[in-house]
Amino acid sequence: GRSGQGANAYSLYFSLEKGWLLLGTDIIERHHVAVGTVTIDGDAACLGPTPMRHLLYNIIGFDTVAMNWMIAISQGHGYLYSSSSHELYNLNYAREFVASREDVGKFVGYKLGVICTTLFLFFVTTTLVSFTLRETQERMLKFTLILQHHVRHRMSYVALIISHLVDSLVYVPLMVGILFFLFEFFSDQLLAFMVLSVVWICEVYSVISVRTTESIQLFPRLFLLYFTLFHVYFFSYPFAFSHLALLSTVTLLCHGMLFFWDRFEVPGYQDGTISQNRPRAVPIGTSLHGAVGVSSRSHTVGESVGTDWMRSLSHSALPRGPAFQRRVSRTFGPIDEDRVRGYSEPASSTVWDDL
């Protein structure tokens, strides 16, 4: 079919067999292959009101609309080729969706599968992102503390930086693995990357800005709600407006972040509920996946990672004798023993106090 006229013509080709769409126009004419043409005017009522038509022409495109038309006509069979995007879409992926509407049992089973897949993705992505964020943050804070020690004593820190970079490369395969894991669920790789980016942004916001009791209890649940709604929509309708749905989800999440910051965090700072001596309302932090039963210790920016390292060093390193100190010195450089022995944890210290 074609939508529009002249330079604005928008052509889409449908066939039950993939091979027909791979043939060139000259081959089709030479072998007298019958081709049916359906022309839809750009101002047709089936394309919606004028604002919707402008949205289709300039932003969304007609691919998604045409795919859903052909899925309804062919019952989830066939292939669609778009001459504008040069994409060949396999509509057979919609068979399960079409079959789920035949009776109530199949519909319920299909929806349960969608919900289980959504929850599985939620737990896996948030857990891996939270783990990576905590580990990299802890390593960075330790690196900063040791680097400061080297700079103060005018020691060479080239080996320290190289060692830190090599250690950080461990997380590159982890992030690549997360992406390839998401590619198995999202046929659109760009969409998978954007979903992972949204999880990262929300996890960082949760670690840095979610500090009051109300935010810790409510924001992870809000994220779970929006995350679930998007994925239920995405998996329920195989060829839907996924990018627009993700844009709506991101907009709602941004609204939620601003709401929690203005409603709970700012008043918490003003009335002293959150302060330097009490950077978080509860001692055990809650990350995004903590709202649904996966609790973990959350190291936030400015909390006691460096303090814990110095305390463990003062309790375990020096009493073990010169041999152990030489091993530490080869790894991190010479240790300032006076500073370590004289180190005592303040009432509520942060790593920035140590730095």
UniProtKB/TrEMBL annotation:
TM stretches of this protein? 55-73, 112-133, 157-183, 189-206, 218-235, 241-261
Q: What's the protein called, per UniProt? A: Uncharacterized protein
Keywords of this entry? Membrane, Transmembrane, Transmembrane helix
Name of one Pfam family that matches: Membralin
User: What are its GO biological-process terms?
Assistant: positive regulation of ERAD pathway; response to endoplasmic reticulum stress
Q: Which domain of life is it from?
A: Eukaryota
Q: Which organism is it from?
A: Rhizochromulina marina
Record's InterPro entries? Membralin
Q: Which GO terms describe its cellular component?
A: endoplasmic reticulum
